[in-house]
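Narrative progress, year one. The postdoctoral researcher (J.K.) led the effort to move from monomer predictions toward full complexes, under supervision of the PI. The following entry was the first complex the group processed end to end, covering 1446 residues in total.
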Amino acid sequence: MSTLLTRPVARRWQTLFQDVTRALVLVVVGGLALTMFVTGTAQLVREATETKNLSLEDIFPSPRAIAGAWQAHQDLLLQQHIPQTLWETLAGLSIALVLGLVIAALMDFSTVLRWILYPILVVSQTIPIFAIAILLILIFGFGTGPKIMVVVLFCFFPIALNTFAGLQGADPELISLLRAMGASSFQTWTKARLPAAMPSFFSGLRIAATYSVVGAIFGEYITAQYGLGVYLKRSYSSFRLDQAYLAILLTALLSMLLVLLVNLVERLTLRWYYTARRASWRGPGIY
Amino acid sequence: MSTLLTRPVARRWQTLFQDVTRALVLVVVGGLALTMFVTGTAQLVREATETKNLSLEDIFPSPRAIAGAWQAHQDLLLQQHIPQTLWETLAGLSIALVLGLVIAALMDFSTVLRWILYPILVVSQTIPIFAIAILLILIFGFGTGPKIMVVVLFCFFPIALNTFAGLQGADPELISLLRAMGASSFQTWTKARLPAAMPSFFSGLRIAATYSVVGAIFGEYITAQYGLGVYLKRSYSSFRLDQAYLAILLTALLSMLLVLLVNLVERLTLRWYYTARRASWRGPGIY
Amino acid sequence: RAQDDEELAQYLGGATEFARADERTAVTLVLDWVPNTNHLGFYVAQALGYYDEANLDVTVQEPTDLQVETVVVSGAAEFGVSYQEVATYALADETPIISLAAIIQHNTSGFVTLHDQDPIERPADMAGLVYGGFGQPELELAVLDRLLECDGAEPGTIEYVDVGYADAIPLMERDRFDLVWIYYAWTGIEAELRGVDLDAIMLMDYLDCVPDYYTPILITSHTMVEEHPDVVAAFVQATARGFAYAIAYPNEAADILLEAVPELDADLVHASAEWLAAQFMADAPRWGQQSVEVWQGFSDFLVEHGILDEGIDAEAAFTNEFLPGTVDEDAG
Amino acid sequence: MSERPCIEVRAVSKTFRDDGRAVQALADVSFTARSGEFVTIIGPSGSGKSTLFNLISGLTEPDTGEIMIDGRPVRRDTGLVGLMPQRDLLLPWRTVLNNVILGPELDGVSKRAARRRAREMMPLFGLAGFENAYPDTLSGGMRQRAALLRTFLTDRDILLLDEPFGPLDALTRRELQRWLLDIWHRFRKTILFITHDVEEAVYLADRVLVFSARPGRIVKELTVDLPRPRSSISLLSEDLRRLEAELLEALEGNGPASTPERVESDPDGS
Amino acid sequence: MSERPCIEVRAVSKTFRDDGRAVQALADVSFTARSGEFVTIIGPSGSGKSTLFNLISGLTEPDTGEIMIDGRPVRRDTGLVGLMPQRDLLLPWRTVLNNVILGPELDGVSKRAARRRAREMMPLFGLAGFENAYPDTLSGGMRQRAALLRTFLTDRDILLLDEPFGPLDALTRRELQRWLLDIWHRFRKTILFITHDVEEAVYLADRVLVFSARPGRIVKELTVDLPRPRSSISLLSEDLRRLEAELLEALEGNGPASTPERVESDPDGS
Ligand SMILES: Nc1ncnc2c1ncn2[C@@H]1O[C@H](COP(=O)(O)OP(=O)(O)OP(=O)(O)O)[C@@H](O)[C@H]1O
Ligand SMILES: Nc1ncnc2c1ncn2[C@@H]1O[C@H](COP(=O)(O)OP(=O)(O)OP(=O)(O)O)[C@@H](O)[C@H]1O
Ligand SMILES: [Mg+2]
Ligand SMILES: [Mg+2]
């Protein structure tokens, strides 16, 4: 009899305890974030207002100088550097796309794999390039390999995490229905989870596309003979700011084009998504 | 009469044309991605198999050496470097969180703003640090400012993009209902769009949390007296590889902790989300 | 060409015959930084076929994000360009590398200020200034303090700020700091070309105070020296010929570099090549000559300032064995 | 019941276009609902009934025609009516209690007061004890009842109810019908009510509008002259049966729904 | 109709637990459906009918009791039955045509053949012309019909239909009821059918199970001994009315649904 009386009470206490803990954690974390936001902003404002003479001329080259640099090195850039960087970018992004999807699938597939992969993913994003540069060089030599790998490293992470979140976010009732219809795990995955994850996947791909060109530039910092990164580094080191900013401009341009391409493909692939949202969808294009 | 006859025909052609264009674009882009994936992988494999003698000893420090470095510098790290990096990280991440939400809201709010903000966002992610290092120093001096700014720069982007995607993905029928109930734009936003965007927001926050510590380390490369980045840079440039790898290890650890914190907060905040998914949710914890 | 050989021999210990590798060998050289005038000899040797004559196929590899020592030891590259200070750290860490040649005979770096803002004439004038460092405060402050001390000023009176990636001179012009340590041949010449009036304390001029050290140097791994001495000799000697040419014909050497790396600023390369021509060999008996005193002196200096726990074996740190020609070792 | 027209729908047409397919949902629909009138709408599935509600609540604009509420034209002007949509559309991140107080909350009523009122209504809607449950853990009928409660708490004079009692058992249904009639009577609301249940249509209404198959047209207006209150009317009353039969006939006389046009027809008939 | 038991539900109970709230959905439910039998289930909203379907289709496991299909216990063993859920659950990223062929597709049937069959059925379900429409552009009833078509194309011997005709107008409903009876009869399917419509329950069934309010128990089993085919039975037939009245009475005799327990009761009664 005593169990009959005590159990519910224990349960009630447990619930209360959970609620309190929950509230506590959220308040503490929220408070911390708020404090950090306020003090951080205050710090920025304080330091910025302390600045005396902020004269920016001759830190940035004039647009004319940049245009001049373009004219001077047009051939070099169009024939050597840009194609090289573009090839590294696209190869890396494509590999990252596949890798990201595979990792997301694995993490979605098994809890054990998730426990193993999660730390690896996080670590892969926190290791500075130089720490693995030697490995890349040892494995791939001084060819395109290291650069492609850096692009992959930059890009697979947002794809993997976002796709994983998307897979996990699939409507559980839909999944149940498919299971009731006798779908195998694999079928549930391809027919329900994956399509449901697509909007989230594209959001990750968009982030990845933004990073991809930068990744290639970064990879070229490890070692390269050609590419926008090489051009940038050489120019900056010999104080040719006009050329350096030209390189940055071209990088941004390429990134922008890639992002627009992703948006276009998204629009065309997720027709159902945009059809449903058409009424509330403001503005045309692939933006 | 002629309009009556020609219009539908024109329309049918238009539809056909659209479909063909759509298929064409997808095939071309898909083909390109596939080609890039294949040739990229082939390149990696080719370069990797060409590798000669892989000798890794002498290059990576032994775990014992790293443990030794920890023992030697424990106090220094715990009292100076780690707190410094942590403060920059948290301040930057908090600011990035607010900034990311605001940007997402603005982009969601107006098409014009979206057209303006999108390129700025992309460019902000493609500019190399050195190009803005001088600017940051000019604005903030040698204090914590530049580092916080770098963290913000690293982190706001995935938050903004993911939250924006989440806001856009809110169930249009729900939005319609709220509008029918007389909700103002702002109310629709706070009561439907924002909650609907939360899972996507957290996915972005998780990516940002992963980047945040790296951002601080990077920021410390610009200028700093304390912090893990300083420790890393100094160790590395004076060839203390054991210390350098200790710094990397600590970076990864801090990142991992931050990601777990985000997961915890997500679990506690999105109770409805995890309640609904509980049945299919495999494995406990905040992972 | 014969006349050239005659003229160049004076920089090469009188040699006109040079070592060749036993068989055609492909080797990689990693640079320490973006190609610049410190690397003139390599590009010349490549362009004029000296490497080819030495039976070598040389790839000049642009810098990596890595310490050159690591790359060389890993075997990914056979040769590398480094600095004596980093090589010393690496040796103290028992990294199996060895220095083959001093690319520039003396330390051509120096501390500079903007003449208009903080005129300095002697080390003591630096006291009280704000120094913008590159992130190795122990070494940097040790050198600065020593300079102050030698000149009778109070050490520890220079404030250190880390400038990291940022370009120093524009920051000095905006008064963010006063003093910076530069390679005169590159940053100093560039400032001159821009008409910025710099005051410089060159370390060359205070060798009795802060010991001299080689910067940059050519290094390889122990493995190479032990297993392929013919390749090492062939490479070092062909490189020496390249630098000899750069000493004799700085203008032509500059053009060769610019041909290979068109992104560089032509005026800067020419002016810098001109300036360096006198510095590559300076007062040494031949290009590349190193002495045990320099290696020992600098190691001692680091130990004295607590930067290193233990000194290195200076004898084992370098070798002159592979340089071309012969010289009276005591003359160095 | 006043004679003042409260909702006026004038010659409204609506066509949905979707890459090359055009679906005409409503064709020239006109009717008037007087203030305080209870009008039920019945018609084949897909005949544009829900579309009509979207038009009246200002969510969509008609292609042609005009809609007036209280004499003012509706032009994407929302919040004038209380709409209960066909799909319950509960907010998944809110508990039942917080879902049903959405209306007052949007109107700026204090949450506390709104919650108190809502709590009182819970038992009537069979939701007592589920105040803190998330919608995902409710049964289909319970979700529907929550959505209904939300609409009532929104407190508008005009209510548009799209099959509110669809997935409810006969008992709960009857109870809520009675309650609805009571509310309507006491607070003089104007109610448009879509249903597929002929008996329900007759039982509740002052007037029944019968829609044709797509494109929706009003093919019959049936005035229900049964006495009120009707709770006392026997379920098998003769009058009721007669009206039901009449309705069924009107419904049956209207053939199958048209398929959508493959190509667009000229909308302005030129 | 054979006498072989096809679905056996034995003393099944199910309680949902949710931070400190325990909702008992089913309490000791037992029944048997013979192969080829048409059983309708009727009961108050929230009485665990949908939960029962989830148990039979293997999506959830009962707390106590056992469920056997064709003599084999169901233990998270899915795909044995064709389930039509209460919410239509169409895949939003598929057109109607691709949605309805989901079943055959999962079974490995060629898509082409499946599409051909599906196209033939479209007109009957009033979906002709909407093959390439996305679910979001359908009306409520059309979605429901698409979900129903999907279930039939899944081609199982046992069908569990959860209020399939809820949001359908009388006409379409009658047509689909007739069609369902025809299918059932021709292909000897076993059908469990949840409905709130008393008339429908009687009209279709061999047997009607009446559920009590939560926690769901079977309070009445009514065998419908009307002759088949029933399409000819007048809508006002005496027998039908009598059975309906009997059902209504059984339903009414069962008080309001219990509220969930605030604290957990001991499930194993110790
Ligand atoms: N947003 C939309 N886009 C395209 N077509 C639509 C849209 N909304 C409705 N339709 C079409 O308009 C027609 C009428 O739909 P509506 O929802 O008004 O029907 P209904 O009378 O409410 O039917 P039901 O009784 O089945 O709910 C349907 O054929 C539907 O396909
Ligand atoms: N996943 C779940 N978590 C918690 N409670 C649940 C869950 N599913 C159902 N319930 C509860 O179980 C009870 C029975 O639900 P069920 O859906 O079976 O009812 P039903 O008989 O189908 O009702 P309706 O006729 O309204 O569809 C309800 O009170 C519901 O709140
Ligand atoms: Mg409808
Ligand atoms: Mg149900």
